Amino acid sequence: MSLIRRVARPMLAATFVVGGLDxxxxxxxxxxxxxPRARMSATVLAATLAPTTxxxxxxxxxxxxxxxxxxxxxxxxxxxxLGGLLLxxxxxxxxxxxxxxxxxxxxxxxxxxxxxxxxxxxxxxxxRREARLAARTAHDALT
Length: 143
Prior knowledge:
Blueprint: H1 3-25, H2 27-34, H3 38-56, H4 65-90, H5 98-142
Helix pairs in contact: 1-2, 3-4
């Protein structure tokens, strides 16, 4: 191994080693930073893993039985990871998801519109009643 490689490898690894040790010492600090991006990260990983799995492990094309079994195992392993990533993309950690929240907003708007229509109908009815009463009063006053 050349001198450059002996020096460059530890330099390259230093940031990963220090980051890993920091993660082991303070796991909550890193988790708090990554939590908002977990679903997006899982989505991106799933989007890249699907074509990689299809192209990288085509067990259906292997001629040799041992190669086919090895490729199928790798394919199914990646498929399992993909399933976990898909679950992570929809996981809301117990909080309502966007679809549910939008449904509740539209439901609230429908209720508000229905209430407003009902109030307008009652106001129109009361206005007609008041107009009839005013007309009767004016008629009675003239006669």
